[in-house]
């Protein structure tokens, strides 16, 4: 700062034009000339800076930060300005953005007031309001650390548990917020907890730090109220951010390509690779976040697609360079490096879920076999590498220690995760096998439990059910798959060690069990249902055919003599049963068949029942003819039996008895038995026939 080299360099970068940068040996006069050439600030002149007045220099630096960081970022949020100022127009901002190209940076009056208000509004509407907290300023409102967490939560909700945050101490919250922001969101750690956990935190420091969130994550899709104010303004922020990222990625790609083509030693190339990989990792999370589609159809915008395309090229080029560096090592280390690259790719490979679960399971099975074949050589390669690592050379050829250390770290990662990776792959294969069986059962059930058609179509459904469920032993297949999956799930959850992952696995198993419990009951009942429909079609068809033929004959018989009608309609009870069976079967089919067939059945039953009703009213007296004949026979047989028994009893009175005590006693006992039996027979006769006397009187 004393020679103004730093200030001049910073301002050279930010100013709209370039100007000479003095070296340390230049005179103070030149320093003053340089400052006077470009700095036009009230109450700050070039001599104050040249004299090294700390308060003036710090004020200048804060002004530069306000102008070229906070103000520029907040100026891209016109809807926030509209909330705090009645003179701004969102519509004019949108039209201006769409109609004119970006202009050069200009200094805007009243920077501090507008920038501070806009940044505060951004925090209030994107984070604080959703978290249910109040942020009034950039001072004490941030001391507890809750406000910092609310900003992180608005960007990545899964990173923060706001309920836990509200119950912790200030220092714990602040430290965790700064750590999460740095490691997960790529926000530089400009603050320490002790800087904020004071009575009067420094507003400028907090504003500078929060501006980093706005710079990296200006997306306001999660702010419902602001979307309601103007949904059309959101794409502007996306385009601005994506435009900057696209410029960065393209420049990164050019630098990467130029460095790869430059002549250098293996060690120098590896150092260059590490430099680019660090930059790549810093930007990776941010870029992967912004190229996620926010549209309902899942498609990317043009700007997102361009950034993604450039990012994919960079990623591919960086990976290829890493692979090249590994393979370029002297044998056998080069071979080991190539294997290590493939092993890393295997254990880090993401499963792409296919449209059909069975396709996913088959794909995982193929990859699992490939990965098993690849990883079976891990011990041999690791042992050979450890010997090279200790010697730091291959056959006398030295190898960069940093590259060996990097490979050792990667070997440890592959060795520690390979077993878990294979267990996970086995679990996922079985998981999707089971899901494919569930989906098959559900889809088939939907095709079986429908409004049915004619008998032939129902017969085809039954044959399909037998083929899919019974011939393929579907229930046995499901049970075997489930039991194997259950063991694989237990092994994977145990090896993983993550409580959350174990809960997810058990949740899947429990939900699957409950789903199958209900589904299996329905699937098992399908056959009996289909068979019942077919049986009712058979019953309906046969009764309709026979009843139609009988009605034809019966209607002709109405004009015949009485004895002929009596003889013809003596079987009317049988046709009553047939008529009832026809209606029962028809009504069942009306309820279970589709609308067209139900309508045809209703029409047919209406016609047949009309003919039946008209005929039955004329011949219903014949319905009990057979019953009368049976009852007459029963009556006459009973009377004859009773008469015979009475005659037999009366005959005993005419038989002479020798007078003796024993003979008289036996005679009296015989008469008592006969009278008792006669009374019993008479009682039975009366109890049977008296309730039916109306019918017998008719006879």
What's the short version?
By secondary structure, the protein is mainly alpha-helical. It has helices at 5-14, 28-38, 46-50, 54-74, 78-84, 90-99, 111-131, 146-155, 162-165, 170-185, 193-196, 203-216, 224-229, 234-261, 266-290, 302-327, 333-347, 357-375, 378-391, 401-448, 455-471, 474-496, 499-557, 562-568, 572-592, 595-619, 625-651, 661-689, 693-698; strands at residues 393-394, 397-398. Keywords: Actin-binding, Coiled coil, Membrane, Phosphoprotein, Repeat, Transmembrane, Transmembrane helix.
Outline the fold blueprint:
Elements: H1 5-14, H2 28-38, H3 46-50, H4 54-74, H5 78-84, H6 90-99, H7 111-131, H8 146-155, H9 162-165, H10 170-185, H11 193-196, H12 203-216, H13 224-229, H14 234-261, H15 266-290, H16 302-327, H17 333-347, H18 357-375, H19 378-391, E1 393-394, E2 397-398, H20 401-448, H21 455-471, H22 474-496, H23 499-557, H24 562-568, H25 572-592, H26 595-619, H27 625-651, H28 661-689, H29 693-698
Helix pairs in contact: 4-7, 4-12, 5-7, 7-8, 8-10, 14-15, 14-16, 15-16, 16-17, 17-20, 18-20, 19-20, 20-22, 20-23, 21-23, 22-23, 23-25, 23-26, 25-26, 27-28
């Amino acid at each position: 700062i004393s020679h103004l080299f730093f200030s001049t360099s910073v301002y050279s970068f930010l100013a709209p034009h370039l100007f000479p940068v003095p070296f340390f040996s230049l005179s103070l006069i030149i320093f003053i000339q340089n400052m006077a050439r470009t700095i036009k600030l009230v109450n700050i002149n070039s001599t104050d800076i040249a004299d090294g007045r700390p308060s003036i220099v710090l004020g200048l630096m804060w002004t530069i930060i306000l102008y070229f960081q906070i103000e520029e970022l907040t100026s891209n949020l016109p809807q926030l300005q509209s909330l705090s100022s009645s003179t701004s127009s969102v519509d004019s901002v949108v039209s201006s953005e769409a109609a004119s190209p970006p202009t050069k940076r200009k200094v805007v009056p009243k920077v501090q007031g507008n920038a501070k208000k806009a940044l505060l509004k951004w925090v209030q509407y994107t984070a604080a309001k959703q978290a249910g907290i109040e942020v009034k300023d950039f001072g004490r409102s941030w001391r507890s650390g809750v406000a910092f967490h609310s900003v992180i939560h608005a960007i990545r909700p899964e990173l923060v548990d706001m309920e836990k945050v509200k119950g912790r101490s200030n220092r714990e919250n602040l430290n965790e917020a700064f750590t999460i922001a740095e490691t997960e969101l790529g926000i530089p750690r400009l603050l320490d907890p002790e800087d904020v956990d004071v009575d009067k935190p420094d507003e400028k420091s907090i504003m500078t730090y929060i501006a980093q969130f706005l710079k990296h994550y200006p997306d306001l899709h999660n702010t419902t109220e602001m979307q309601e104010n103007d949904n059309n303004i959101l794409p502007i922020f996306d385009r601005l951010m994506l435009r900057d990222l696209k410029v960065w990625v393209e420049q990164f790609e050019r630098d990467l390509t130029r460095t790869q083509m430059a002549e250098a030693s293996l060690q120098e190339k590896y150092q260059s690779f590490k430099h680019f990989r660090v930059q790549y990792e810093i930007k990776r999370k941010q870029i992967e976040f912004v190229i996620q589609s926010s549209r309902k159809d899942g498609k990317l915008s043009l700007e997102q697609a361009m950034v993604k395309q450039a990012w994919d090229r960079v990623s591919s080029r960086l990976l290829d360079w890493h692979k090249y560096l590994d393979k370029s090592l002297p044998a056998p280390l080069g071979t080991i490096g190539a294997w290590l690259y493939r092993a890393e790719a295997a254990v880090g490979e993401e499963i792409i879920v296919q449209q059909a679960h069975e396709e996913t399971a088959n794909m995982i099975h193929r990859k699992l076999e490939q990965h098993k074949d690849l990883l079976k050589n891990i011990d041999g390669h690791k042992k050979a590498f450890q010997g090279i690592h200790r010697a730091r050379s291959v056959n006398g050829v030295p190898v960069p220690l940093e590259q060996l250390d990097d490979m050792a770290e990667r070997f440890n990662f592959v060795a520690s995760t390979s077993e878990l990776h294979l267990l996970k792959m086995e679990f996922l294969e079985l998981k999707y096998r089971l899901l494919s069986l569930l989906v098959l059962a559900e889809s088939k059930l939907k095709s079986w439990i429908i409004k049915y058609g004619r008998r032939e179509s129902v017969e085809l459904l039954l044959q399909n059910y037998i083929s899919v469920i019974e011939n393929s032993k579907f229930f046995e297949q499901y049970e075997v798959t489930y039991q194997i999956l259950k063991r694989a799930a237990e092994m994977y959850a145990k090896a993983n060690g993550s409580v959350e992952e174990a809960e997810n696995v058990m949740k899947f198993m429990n939900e699957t069990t409950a789903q199958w419990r209900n589904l299996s009951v329905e699937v098992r009942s399908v056959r009996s249902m289909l068979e019942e429909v077919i049986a009712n079609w058979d019953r309906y068809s046969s009764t309709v055919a026979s009843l139609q033929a009988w009605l034809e004959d019966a209607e002709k018989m109405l004009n015949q003599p009485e004895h002929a009608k009596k003889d013809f309609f003596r079987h009317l009870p049988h046709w009553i049963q047939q008529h009832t069976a026809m209606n029962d079967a028809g009504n069942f089919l009306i309820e279970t068949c589709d609308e067209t067939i139900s309508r045809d059945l209703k029409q047919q039953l209406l016609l047949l029942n009309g003919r039946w009703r008209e005929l039955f009213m004329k011949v219903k007296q014949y319905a009990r003819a057979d019953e009368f004949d049976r009852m007459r026979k029963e009556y006459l047989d009973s009377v004859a039996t009773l008469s015979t028994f009475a005659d037999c009893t009366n005959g005993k009175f005419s038989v002479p008895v020798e007078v003796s005590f024993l003979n008289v006693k036996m005679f009296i006992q015989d008469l008592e038995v006969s009278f008792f039996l006669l009374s019993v027979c008479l009682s039975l006769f009366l109890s049977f026939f008296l309730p039916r006397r109306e019918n017998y009187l008719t006879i």
